[in-house]
Specification:
With 407 residues, the chain is mainly α. The protein folds into 3 domains: 44 residues; 94 residues, Receptor-associated Protein (Up-down Bundle), CATH 1.20.81.30; 243 residues, Type II secretion system (T2SS), domain F (Receptor-associated Protein). It is built from 16 helices and 3 strands. A 3-stranded antiparallel sheet has the order 2-1-3. α2 crosses α3 and α6 runs antiparallel to α7. The longest helix is centred in the middle third of the chain and has 58 residues. The radius of gyration is 30 Å and the shape is extended.
Amino acid sequence: MGNFRYTAIDQKGKRQEGTLGGYTREEVSAELRKMGLKPVTVEPVRGKQRSWKLSEINITPPKVDPSLKVIFFRELATLLDAGIQLVDAISIVQLQFADKNFQKALGEILVFVKAGHPFSEALAEHKNIFPGFVISMVAAAELGGGLDKILTQIAIYIEKEDDVRKRLSSAVAYPKFIAIFFSVVLAGVMFGLMPKFADIFDSFGADLPASTQIMINISEFMSKYIVLEAIIGGGIWIGFKAFKASPKGRLFIDKHVFKLPVAGHIIHKSLISRFAKTLAVLIQSEVSIIDSLKIAGNTADNAYIKQITEAVAIQIAHGRSLGGQLAKYDDIFPIMVSSMISVGEKSGALAVMLEKISEFHEADFNASVDKLSKTIEPIVMGGLGVVISIIVVTLYLPIFQMSSAIH
């Protein structure tokens, strides 16, 4: 699909120009007529060199607020349930969004669907906006029916996912602020305040306490080799980013992230809840268990879980049970989880059991985040107070000793 530049006459006889996405001139001309315009010229936009503005450069794919996607799927489901055709429903919903990236994507999806392509394929053209599980669920609904119900499930899922992300972001926002603030204060002390105190102490020529001398030596070292420290720090950061970007590095980090104190437990609960919820929704949408596993593994955004789900999917293809295979990875999937899945498989209520697993871990996650939010502030403030007290005492201890000697 490409862009076509058009010139057209509106119903009032005014000339209009613009661009519209489409596959052929005829398709774009038909779309213009539906918009109440009389096409004069329709030509494909040719690639040409032009000067770039800094604001036009996108290093990362454009992102869309999850709340907009929730509104889109909810309203689309409502219109479909009311008997409105998919093309007309998309046309109606598209008009209300002010976000340019989302509106552009919906416009291209509309043209794609009007050309006779399935809705799932149209969504697949914008994977940076619509994740794989959404595309798979829509594809399953197109085969089995009930698209309006599936779209409602998608909206609920995205809404819950967004709530989880906001809770995690809220839990770490305060510690991040304190860490940055404290780093700035500490840098000011070591590079600004400490050298001045060192000059004052040198002018007295008195012997300094060991703690004060150590602080002064650290300050002098940091000031003297600041360029080298910046190079080393930058090298470590770049090295970490490169390690994280590599397949082996990503797998190592994602495998051991669950062992982090406090945060590891919260991340673990969040991922299990997301994995179980995604798997339940996909199975309810009649997506095959093997495809559902692979999609759920990708949605988890964890290389280790993705590796596990791929290995489990292979075993299931050979006739093994899902619960039995997940039980082999008890570092990620506790016995309770694999046991409930086994019960669900035997009773024919796997999706229901997965929903229960998701609800349990989601409740545990919410409780952990609430507990962390309530306890982290006094802990951080107490630790910050201790460090500041040590710095102040270290700086002023020689002055107190000199005052005592004079008296």
